[in-house]
Amino acid sequence: MWKTVLRRIILMIPQLIILSVIAFFVSKMMPGDAFSAYSQDPNIDPAVIEQMRIKAGYYDPIYIQYFRWIGDILQGNFGQSVVFKQSVLTVIGQRLNNTIWLSLVTLIITYLIALPLGVIAGRYQNSIADRIIVIYNFLTYSTPTFVFAILMLWLFGYNLGWFPTRGSVDPGLSGLADLWSRLHHMILPAVTLAILSTTTTIQYLRTGIIDAKSQDYVRTARAKGVPERVVYNRHIFRNSLLPIASFLGYEITGLISGSVFIESIFTYPGIGQLFINSISQRDYSVMLALLLMFGVATLVGTLLSDIIMSIVDPRIRIK
Question: Torsion angle of alpha carbons 109, 115, 118, 119, nearest 10°?
Answer without folding.
Answer: -150
